[in-house]
Amino acid sequence: MKEKDISPEESMALINAMIGRARKRYTDNSFYFLLWGWITLIASAIHFYLLEYTEYPYPYIGWSLNIIGVIVSIFKSVKDSKKRVVANHTDGTYGWLWLALGISMFTIIFNGAILEWSVVPFIILLMAIGTFVSGAMMKFVPLQIGGIVFWILSFVAFRSTEAYQMLITSISMLGYLVPGYIMKFNAKRNGV
Amino acid sequence: MGFNQPLDPLLHSQLRLAVVSLLISVETADFVYIKEQTAATAGNLSVQLDKLSTAGYIAITKGYEGKKPKTTCKITSKGVDAFESYVKTIQQYLKP
After folding, report:
1. Which residues of chain A are modeled with pLDDT < 70?
2. What's the structural domain count of chain B?
3. Contacts of residue A8 in chain B, CB cutoff 8 Å?
4. Any domain includes B73
5. Is residue B5 included in any domain, yes or no?
6. B23 CA: distance to closest CA in chain A (Å)
7. Minimal-distance CA residue of chain B relative to A82
8. Is A84 a member of any domain?
9. Which residues of A touch B5 (CB under 8 A)?
10. A10, A132, A153, B55 - which has most CB atoms within 10 Å?
11. For B1-96, where are the alpha helices, taking DSSP H only?
């Protein structure tokens, strides 16, 4: 592209062409949905099993996997941001949304004793917000359906015992994993 | 054609307009990405980016990715204003 005089028509065409090129065609955030989907599924399944079938005094032990999740997520996002040649306006917003939800989840769990540890339905509600809004931002319907699944399961969880709330959490992870795998598959197919 | 107001000469140039149109759509963009999207030569692009940066239309951050230099560009609010008024003026030119 060289320096030369351009007509107003050419200017408009150029502006449209460049904006069209910059528009992101596909977003692949599947890594985080798959990572957190599997961590939560495993941790809640362990929690359910230990509560329901054993006398183990620390049934929540599986949740220590969250520490690995946080470290891997931070490491991956720092690595990706260094490699990235272009950052779209929405890229940073996902991070802020999930950070805000993560802080809210931590606040609920930290004060869990006040709620007599019936915290799961609230956590599932927060996951519903994150998944539904992320899906809307990416224009990715499977993720929005995942959000609706979380809302339905939260209704059920409000009416269940602690052990069965953990089982519901395990099942609810389909709301992360199914859209996560669809996203990953699409990204591969579209060569993102 | 009756011109109500002159076009901003900084933006009324093919490569600089391409760069600003690209940057208006994204948060930040790497030098390599801009070069690819505009199909400009590195030398020419460098000169035009400097002009835009001197005018305060874009902000350039120079850093490193490993050992390789990495130049990142971002449009400033002054650049956004200039782009918007450029588009408005162009639209007046295009009015039948």
Report:
1. 1-5, 24-26, 191-192
2. 1
3. 90, 93-94
4. yes
5. no
6. 8
7. B65
8. yes
9. none
10. A153
11. 14-25, 31-38, 42-54, 77-94
The verdict on residue A21 lying in a domain is no
Residues from chain B contacting residue A1 (CB–CB below 8 Å): 14-15, 18, 38-40, 44
Question: B90 contacts in A (CB within 8 Å)?
Answer: 8, 11-12
**Interface contact flag, B26 A22, Cβ < 8 Å:** yes
| pLDDT top residue among B84 and A139 | B84
A12 reaches B (C-beta below 8 A): yes
Whether the Cβ atoms of residue A12 and residue B90 lie closer than 8 Å to each other: yes
In this structure, is the dihedral angle defined by the CA atoms of residues A101, A106, A112 and A117, taken in order, positive or negative?
A: positive
The pLDDT confidence band at residue B2, using thresholds 50, 70 and 90, is very low
Please check whether residue B57 lies inside any domain of the structure: yes
What would the pLDDT profile of A157-187 be if each residue is shown by its tens digit? 999 998 999 999 999 999 999 999 999 998 8
Give the whole-angstrom CA distance, residue A52 versus residue A85: 50
Inter-chain touch A18–B32, beta carbons under 8 Å: no
Q: Which of A4, A10, A18 to mutate against chain B (most B CBs within 10 Å)?
A: A18
Determine the structural domain holding residue A136 and report its residue range: 30-190
- A8: nearest CA in chain B? B90
Nearest to A86 among B21, B26, B93 (CB): B26
What angle separates helix A141-157 from helix A174-190, to the nearest 10 degrees? 170
Are A21 and B22 an interchain contact pair (Cβ–Cβ within 8 Å)?
Answer: yes
Let me know if residue A2 belongs to a domain: no
Return the SS3 of B61.
strand
A141-159 pLDDT, tens digit each: 999 999 999 999 999 999 9
**Nearest-CA neighbor of B23 among A18, A121, A180?**
A18
> From CA B96, how far away is CA B93, in angstroms rounded?
8
d(CA A60, CA A43): 8
